[in-house]
Each structure stands twice: as C-alpha cells, then as structure tokens.
User: Which sequence fits this backbone?
C-alpha cells in the first residue's frame, strides 16, 4: 500500500483544485488536459510498458466515443451504461487488433503503421456508415443533469475525468508491481529472450493492448459526453493518436505519471505560447514546436525520466560509505 | 462499372497517381530504411517544397521542370542540415525521440508557412497544365505523364547511387549494421544526414512535378503523408524498387476501390490492402527482416 | 463617405425607435463615451480552415474599426475586440469561448464551421452569453433550443430549398433542357447534410439523380469522379465542396473535356469565388452557384469590396457575413444601451436590423434563426460573378444551358 501513496497524494492535490480555482476557462483547460492524459495513459500501457508503439490509438478513442453516442442517440440507452459499454468495446477492439497483429509477429514500425491503418479504416467507414450519421456526425441532445452525464458545472466533469485518470494510474501501478508487468517489460526489452524464458509474448502483448484499448476508449466516451458532437474526423482522426503518444513520450514512457505530467506540460505549453503571442496566427505554434524539440533535446527520457536522472546526479554527492550502507540495507 | 471503357482509364489514372505517390514515398523510404524512423516532417517538407516551387515560378519565372534542378540541391542541403544539426543531436540517437523531434519540426515548418504566407490556396498557371494526351478512352494530363516518366528516372538514379557509389555503399552499410559501419570508420552522423538530405531532395522533385496540376497551401503535404507511409512499409523499408512498385499498387488499388465503393469509402482499399499484406508478409513486399 | 451614410441611417433608425425606447435613447446621445465594450471575435485562424477563419476575422475587424472610427457605440463607447483562435477544432473553439467569457465579453461572433459552432454555442449557453453564428449552416445549430444562439445567415434547409426552386426556375425558363443530375459532395457535415436534402427534394422538382458521389476533404485526384461523370453523361453536375476540391474538380472536368448543360453548385466552395474566377477563367465560365452573397445594390457592400481588395485580399463571403454580424450586434448593443448579456440577447431576439450588407431584408429571428436569410444564385459571366436570382437583386440574366 505504501507504493500507492504518491498516486494518492497527486490525486488528492488535483481533486482540491476546483475548490480553489473558480475560473471556468481554467477548469475547461484542465478537463481537456486530463482527458488527453487518460488517452495517453492507455497508450502508455501498450507503448511505454510494452514497448509496442501504436500510431492508431484513435481507433479506441473513436470506438468509445461512437459506441456511447450511438447507444444514446439511436437506442435510447442511458449515458452511464453507455459509457461502460464504450469502454468494453474499446477493450474488445484491443483484443481483436492485438490478436491479429501479434499473431503475424508484427513489430516496431510495422506494428505502428498497421495500427494507424486500422484507425484509418475505422475513420473512413465511420464517415460513410449510416449508423454514425456518416458525414453529418452524431449530435447528442442537450439535456443537462447527472442522469444524462451532462453536468451543469465544469467542476463535476473535472472530478469525473480525474477519477478515471486515478483509476488509470492505479492500473499502471498494479501492472508495475505484478508478474504480468514483469513479463510485459521483459517482452519490451527483448522479446526473443523473454519467449525463450517461457513468457507467452503474444498473450502478454494482447492483454496489454486490451487494457490499453479500454483506457483510451474511456477518454473517447468522456469526449462525447463533454462536447456532445462527434464525427469521423474528431473520433478517429490522427490528432488524438498523436496527442496520446506525444504526452506519454514527453512525460516519460513506462512510468506511472508520465502521461499525466506530459499532458500538463504539453497543454500548458500550448496555452502559454498562445498567451505570449496573442493574435499572430501560426507564430504561437512555431514556438510550441520549437519548445517541443528543445524539451526532447534536454530531457530525452521524458520529464519523469529527467527527474529520475536529476535525482541520480544529485544523489551522487553522498559519500561512498553511505552507499555501501544503503547496499547492505537494500 | 465493369466496362473496359471505365476500367482502363481508371487503371491508368491509378498508375499516374501512383507515380505522384512514388515520388513522395521514395524520399521517405530512404529515410525510413536508414534512420529507422517514421519521419513526421515529410508532409511539411512537401508543403515547403511546393511553396518553394511556387515562388520559383512567381518570383524567378522558373518553370517547375526547370526549378527542379535548383530546388533539389537546395532541399538536399536543407535536409542535411536538419538532420545533422537538429534532429540528430536532439534525439540522442533514440528512435522514439526522433519521432517526436520530427513531429516538432513538422509543426514548426507548417506554421512558419502559415505565418508567413497565410492559408490562401495558391496555384500556378503553366501552359501545359491543361494539355492532355488523347488516348481515345481517356485524356491523360501531360504533367502527370511527365511525372510518371520522372519516377523511373529518379528511381533509377537513386538505385545507381545506392549500388555503385561510395556514398550509396556507406548508406547501405549503415542501414544494415550501424555498429559495424562505425567500426570500419564510416561517419554515421554524416551518412544519416546525407540520407535525410537525399530524401528531402526527392520531396523537392516530387513537389516540382506535382505543382502544375495541384495547389499549394501550408497543410497540403499532409494529404500525402499517410499514403506515403503506407507505401513505404508495404514496399519494404529502404527498398527503392519496393517504394515504386508499392506506389503503383496503391495507386491502382485506390483508383479501383474508389470506382467501386465511391471516393470516400474507397479510401479503405489502400489500408485494407496494407493490413492484408502486412499480416501475411510482415516485412513488406521487398523488405528485409525487421 | 460610408461612415456618414451609416450615421444617417443610425439617426433615422434611432428616431423611429425613440418612441419604443423612450428616454433611454435621448441621454445616450448626450452622454460621454463610456468604457469599451468587449466583443468576442472567434474564428479558426490556424489549422485546416485557416483561410476562411482569417477572412472571417478580417470582415469582423473591419466592421469594428469602422464603428470605432465613428465614435463607437453611442452611449457605450468603443468596441474592444477579443480575438480568439478556434484552431479549426471544436475543443479549440470551446476553450476560446471560456476565455472570452472570463474576459467579460458582452457577446461573441463567429465560429465559421458547423462542427465548431455546435460546440461553441453550447459553451456560450452556459453563461447565457449571446452568440451570433457567422456562417455555420448545419440546421442542428439552431434547433437545440439554446436561447443565446442566433444565426444571421441561412441554414442548409433553406439553402437547399432555395437552390432547388431556383434551379427549377432557371430550367423552366430555358425550356427544361436538363433532366438528369449527378451530385458531387464533400463527405463531412455540410456536404453530406446538403446532399441528403437534395436527394429528398430533387425528384419532386422533376429531376432524376443518376448518382451521388461523396468525396473526402482533402481529395488528391478527381479523375475517377470525372470518369464516372463522363460515363453517365448527366445534364447537370451539382458540386458541394470546399474551395480546393472544387477547383480540382473543375480543372479535371475541363481537362477531360466534359460537356454538360450546366454546373449548378450549392454552396460550391469556389463557384462564387473571385479568386477562382481570376485564376481559372476557362474552368470557371458559366458555373452557377447558390451561396452566400452580398447585396449588389448596397453601396456599402460594394465600397467594402474595394476596401478589402485594396488590402490585397479577395472579397469572400466570410468577410461580408462577419462584417454584417458585427453590425447586427452593434445595433443590438445600442438598442440594449448596455453590455448586459440578458439585455443584448433580448435586443437580438427582437432585432429588425436592416443596415447589413446581405440581401436579407430586415432581420427577424425566430428560435435563433434569421428568417429573412437566404442564399442567392450567381453565375460566372464575362470573367465576373453576377447575381442571377432572385430578380430583385439580380444584375444579369442566367445563361443556361452552357454554350457549347
């Protein structure tokens, strides 16, 4: 339980924010940032811990968003079970894509682009299929209230997305501490060696993809509830695939807090540059891109990795005797 | 739909479109094959090259087919510099970081174009833009046919370069075995930069051949990126013949599925073929083992 | 000179409403200028829609500059524009609405794209912040019962109906040469929505639809679409696309020497664009469009055209629609005599504003939609864009069918 303390502290601090911050603009910013962090955490399970970089996580995001929207708009299903079914759909999709791609032994860039291809297929189908409204998209009726998952206050949305992020952090922690996690990391580091040692690489990767799909689908369901309108470009577009992997890599792959930290930094950076530059269209994004490159230049292991590196550097100041002490006491 | 009168032109259109894709994909497959990264900046570089071709025409009065000989070396230098002084150092040799660095560069390039030139769509008017070869069943646009021929010339030139020159051999060595290449004294950073430069030069050539029948704006390159990535992986990373053949395959598949399924749904043809090939042949048509 | 005209119109307007607004109007003329009124101006100036967004912003800022140069809003002071970038996404637009609300804007104008407007009007509704949609044609924007949302221009229900009525009129007047039709449309919100309506209503007007072809944005090549058109040889092609695709389609049709009785666009991206006519005069000849257009008899609208062209830009619909929306809001602000949101909403709801540049007549909002709003039919004739219908605004007669 001791290991969950950092998670608990982070969540507690974040949960207190709406009590202090009244500005809806800031709350909206944080809600969107946390949603991206959730999508990124999903990616992180497969890409960070599992080492399988996916470029098509939009497939899960969009599936969650569409499933919950269509169930509500066309079949009158309530938003809450719809949300749960959306997550289940994401998990199922993860299992299917995982089974197909890992059976063929696809790895590295090939795997990345195949996931992109799946996302694109879904996007194109969604843009013409009548059930999604095709090009017109799916518009959910505006009905404020907790029953329809359309909260009046932004703070309520904030706490919901924070709860989802908290769950994803706990999942990451559990994976880190479990045997499954060890297998997953072993597969990431050297799949052939892991197989030789008896790890069923295919099953492990597929399981990771299932969990990954579920988490990112949750982010998609949330998007649908927050913005109430989706179309194929919003749901399955490459933008969310890129944001998910961007936040995870910048924040630090294979770490519990990586995507959260990455999302906060990347999104804040975007806001800061826009504020600084005001209205010169494009200039703020030039600076954003430049800072992105700089961040990677300076902190190649991402933010969390960078902090760990910094600790190591500062930790080296301790005298040698102390370190043997530490060695003895583990 | 199944009459020859429609199928033949559709296949021809597919081949001509495939030629455009091939030119874009050639640069990408080189970069991909050697640096083992998915170059996110490729689309933005294509947009930049199109702008360059546009201004070469508007300000210098250079026809795109002439500007090609000016822009290819220019963009080679640009690509070399980018890799040598920005991408290489910033990514510390890590594949995933190279991905993000190229993404950052893509954002910078695209928005620099937007900031300087606004989002207006620009086109050039050359006399042969509307000329066609009349084949009876269909008219083939002259610039597209020129592009088709150019693909073979460029691909041949690249192949000759890779097979018979020292530079080419060094590139192939680094692509196959980086450490070994280093051990025999090859300057890997220089080779990486040369490769990126070559890839970017190809993009400049693609732009010059594309501009007579297309348009220019800051985001225009993005439309070609996904297809280009698909072709590169389909043909096999680093394989020049793979990129060309893969491009023609994709072009024809796109054209035929567009014909049968409609332009919107037809786009899945590209990705379904891609998925099918990879599931059955994980290293692509001509690729070496991953 | 336009400023003078504007003042005169305002005074006349004020005089007629003085009875209704009573004592409020009189002292406001005499009262000193107050603190600036903040007005949100929201457009997608970066991202895929950046051109349209920048044109929209141009129109809005020109209007605000003009109002401020004449002393601002009587009784309230100058307008302080709060510019926002929707970044071509609904999330971007929503974030800007939040920021504008925090900045204390009295109202917001803009959005441009339907999917952005759906999100932004909703976000503004939380704060009962009056929102005037500049273009966004999806009917869903004004059918959600949001009291704060006003759309000055027409929705695609009205556009489709007008387009078809006008098409039937033009066809009848020429002796009904056209019977078969092919529709080519972009496959997202505006194109698909329009295509659905056209499919439902064209047969009733006596037309036979041979095929409806959706295409993505962006589309890299139209050769196959044109192939199908040539194979089926319709009398008319009805395109509904964004600018770039429209141009590619038109160029490809010219290249493949497609012979039609007419090209009749509905919200055709380039069909009523001066840029297209200037750059591709051959491909643009005789193309008809049913689209947003300014009132060609309105001298202010014509004067603004010159102002915009002197700045090196094209006079596109985003410019004059946004200009008109700002004028509409300024009028509402003046009548409300306050920057209070509820009062502005009321003033908008009861607006009869006629000082705009559009061929809409006096404004009348019913459930947020301006009832007078309608598109206009244009045709490219003599390297210029002329209005051919309705007759009250027309400055040319339709040429149909297209000469061989």
Assistant:
């Amino acid at each position: 339980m001791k290991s969950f303390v950092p998670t608990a502290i982070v969540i507690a601090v974040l949960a207190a924010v709406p009590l202090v911050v009244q500005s809806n603009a800031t709350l909206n910013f944080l809600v969107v940032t946390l949603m991206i962090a959730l999508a990124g955490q999903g990616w992180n399970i497969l890409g960070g811990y599992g080492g399988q970089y996916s470029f098509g996580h939009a497939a899960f995001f969009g599936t969650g968003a569409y499933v919950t929207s269509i169930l509500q708009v066309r079949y009158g299903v309530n938003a809450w079970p719809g949300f749960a079914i959306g997550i289940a759909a994401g998990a199922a999709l993860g299992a299917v894509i995982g089974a197909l791609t890992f059976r063929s032994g696809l790895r590295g860039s090939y795997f990345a682009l195949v996931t992109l291809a799946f996302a694109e297929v879904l996007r194109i189908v969604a843009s013409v299929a009548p059930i999604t409204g095709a090009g017109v998209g799916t518009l959910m009726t505006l009905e404020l209230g907790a029953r329809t998952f359309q909260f009046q206050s932004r703070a309520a949305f904030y706490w919901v997305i924070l709860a989802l992020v908290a769950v994803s952090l706990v999942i990451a922690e559990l994976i880190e501490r479990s045997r499954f996690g060890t297998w997953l990391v072993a597969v990431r580091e050297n799949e052939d060696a892991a197989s030789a040692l008896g790890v069923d690489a295919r099953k492990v990767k597929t399981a990771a993809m299932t969990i990954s799909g579920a988490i990112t689908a949750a982010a998609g369901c949330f998007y649908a509830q927050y913005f109430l309108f989706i179309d194929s470009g919003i749901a399955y577009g490459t933008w969310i695939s890129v944001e998910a992997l961007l936040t995870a890599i910048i924040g630090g792959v294979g770490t519990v807090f990586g995507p959260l930290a990455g999302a906060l930094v990347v999104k804040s950076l975007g806001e800061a540059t826009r504020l600084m530059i005001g209205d010169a269209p494009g200039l703020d994004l030039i600076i954003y891109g430049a800072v992105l490159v700089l961040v990677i230049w300076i902190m190649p292991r991402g933010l969390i990795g960078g902090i760990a590196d910094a600790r190591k550097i500062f930790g080296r100041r301790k005298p040698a005797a102390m370190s043997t002490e530490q060695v003895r006491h583990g | 739909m199944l009459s020859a009168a429609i199928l033949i032109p559709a296949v021809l259109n597919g081949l001509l479109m495939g030629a455009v894709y091939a030119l874009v994909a050639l640069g990408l497959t080189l970069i991909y094959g050697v640096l083992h990264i998915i170059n996110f900046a490729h689309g933005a570089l294509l947009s930049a090259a199109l702008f360059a071709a546009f201004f070469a025409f508007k300000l210098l009065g250079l026809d795109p087919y002439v500007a090609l000989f000016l822009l290819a070396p220019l963009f080679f230098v640009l690509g070399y510099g980018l890799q040598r002084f920005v991408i290489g150092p910033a990514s510390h040799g890590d594949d995933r970081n190279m991905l993000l660095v190229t993404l950052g560069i893509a954002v910078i390039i695209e928005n620099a174009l937007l900031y300087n030139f606004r989002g207006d769509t620009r086109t050039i008017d050359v006399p042969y833009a509307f000329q066609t070869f009349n084949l009876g069943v269909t008219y083939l646009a002259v610039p597209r046919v020129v592009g088709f021929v150019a693909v073979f010339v460029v691909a041949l030139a690249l192949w000759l370069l890779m097979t018979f020159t020292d530079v080419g051999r060094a590139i192939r060595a680094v692509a196959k075995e980086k450490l070994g290449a280093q051990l025999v004294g090859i300057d890997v950073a220089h080779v990486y930069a040369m490769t990126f430069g070559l890839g970017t030069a190809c993009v400049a050539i693609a732009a010059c051949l594309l501009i007579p029948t297309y348009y220019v704006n800051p985001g225009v390159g993005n439309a070609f990126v996904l297809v280009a990535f698909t072709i590169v992986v389909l043909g096999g990373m680093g394989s020049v013949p793979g990129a060309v053949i893969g491009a023609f395959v994709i072009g024809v598949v796109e054209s035929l599925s567009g014909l049968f399924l409609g332009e919107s749904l037809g786009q899945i043809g590209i990705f379904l073929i891609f998925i099918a090939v990879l599931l059955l042949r994980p290293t692509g048509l001509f690729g070496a083992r991953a | 000179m336009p400023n003078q005209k504007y003042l005169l119109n305002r005074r006349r307007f004020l005089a007629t409403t003085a009875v209704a607004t009573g004592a409020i109007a009189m002292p406001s003329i005499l009262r000193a200028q107050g603190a600036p009124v903040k007005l949100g101006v929201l457009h997608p100036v970066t991202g895929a829609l950046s051109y349209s967004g920048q044109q929209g912003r141009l129109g809005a800022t020109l209007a605000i500059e003009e109002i401020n140069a004449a002393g601002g809003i009587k009784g309230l002071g100058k307008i302080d524009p709060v510019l926002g970038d929707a970044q071509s996404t609904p999330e971007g637009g929503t974030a800007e609405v939040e920021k504008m609300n925090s900045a204390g804007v009295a109202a917001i104008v803009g959005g441009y794209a339907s999917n952005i407007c759906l999100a932004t009007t909703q976000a503004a509704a939380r704060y009962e912040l009056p929102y005037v949609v500049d273009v966004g044609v999806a009917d869903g924007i004004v059918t959600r019962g949001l009291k704060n949302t006003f759309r000055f221009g027409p929705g695609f229900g009205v556009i489709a109906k007008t387009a078809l009525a006008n098409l039937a009129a033009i066809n009848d007047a020429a002796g009904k040469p056209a019977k078969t039709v092919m529709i080519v449309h972009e496959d997202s919100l505006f194109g698909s929505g329009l295509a659905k309506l056209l499919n439902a209503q064209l047969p009733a007007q006596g037309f036979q639809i041979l095929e409806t072809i959706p295409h993505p944005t962006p589309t890299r090549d139209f050769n196959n679409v044109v192939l199908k058109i040539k194979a089926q040889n319709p009398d008319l092609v009805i395109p509904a696309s964004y600018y770039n695709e429209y141009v590619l389609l038109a160029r490809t049709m010219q290249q493949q020497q497609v012979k039609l009785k007419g090209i009749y666009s509905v919200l055709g991206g380039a069909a009523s664009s001066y840029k297209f006519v200037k750059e591709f005069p051959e491909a643009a000849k005789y193309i008809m469009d049913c689209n947003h257009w300014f009132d060609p008899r309105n001298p202010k609208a014509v004067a603004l055209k010159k102002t915009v062209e002197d700045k090196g830009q094209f006079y596109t619909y985003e410019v004059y629609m946004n200009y008109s929306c700002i004028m509409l809001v300024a009028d509402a602000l003046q009548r409300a005599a306050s920057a209070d949101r509820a009062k502005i909403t009321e003033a908008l709801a009861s607006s009869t504003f006629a000082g705009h540049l559009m061929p809409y007549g006096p404004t009348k909002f019913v459930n947020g939609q301006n009832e007078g709003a309608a598109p206009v039919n244009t045709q490219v004739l003599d390297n210029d864009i002329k209005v051919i219908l309705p007759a009250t605004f027309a400055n040319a007669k339709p040429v149909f069918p297209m000469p061989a």
